[in-house]
Amino acid sequence: QAVVDFERLGEHAAAFQGHDVGFCCLGTTRAKAGAAGFVRVDRDYVAQAAELARAGGCKHFVLQSSQGANQHSRFLYLRVKGEVENLVQAVGFDRCTILRPAVLLCRRQESRPMEWIAQKFLGIVAWVFPTAYSVPVETVAKAMVAIVLQPGEGKVEVLENGAIHKLGKA
């Protein structure tokens, strides 16, 4: 495990050397980092990490994005996620997998009251519609590993929430 300073990511290029597969789940919230900080973390840091990984020999990059990601969205969160998807694809990996999970069901150390309420509500909804609006983070992690162990279905693969559920439970 290497600890890096994302403000000086270029100085940590050695940490990105010699890996066949890269996994990226980096992200923050607008509430925590402000709009500019959110863009810096969720787009700029991720794109720079992808570039360093490719330069270091990474062949397959797996990016956790978001359901509804769209570079043309009027919502900052979805627009930034769409932009970073495009930036990562442009890096030129042999294989790029983008996962677009819905609301992530997890336990956090920090307090996010609105997310907690949404998770409780979506946890109940998940009993009726298990793959529609949410996904446990463990399922996303299992899907990320499983996709690496399968042969690729193209240079770029996009897995929406339903496919993440299916792959994460296989």
UniProtKB/TrEMBL annotation:
A Pfam match: NAD_binding_10
Protein name, per record: Protein HTATIP2
Subunit structure: Monomer. Forms homodimers during oxidative stress. Interacts (via N-terminus) with elongation factor EEF1A1 (via middle-region); the interaction is direct and competes with EEF1A1 binding to guanyl-nucleotide exchange factor EEF1B2, thereby inhibiting GDP for GTP exchange and reactivation of EEF1A1. Interacts with nuclear transport receptors XPO4, IPO5/RANBP5, IPO7, IPO9 and KPNB1 as well as GCN1L1/GCN1 and LRPPRC probably through their HEAT repeats. Binds NCOA5/CIA.
Residue span(s) of domain NAD(P)-binding: 4-151
Gene Ontology annotations of biological process type: import into nucleus
Gene Ontology molecular functions: catalytic activity
Origin: domain of life: Eukaryota
Gene Ontology CC, one term: cytoplasm
CDD domains, sorted: CC3_like_SDR_a (cd05250)
InterPro entries in UniProt: NAD(P)-bd_dom, NAD(P)-bd_dom_sf
UniProt-listed SUPFAM superfamilies: NAD(P)-binding Rossmann-fold domains
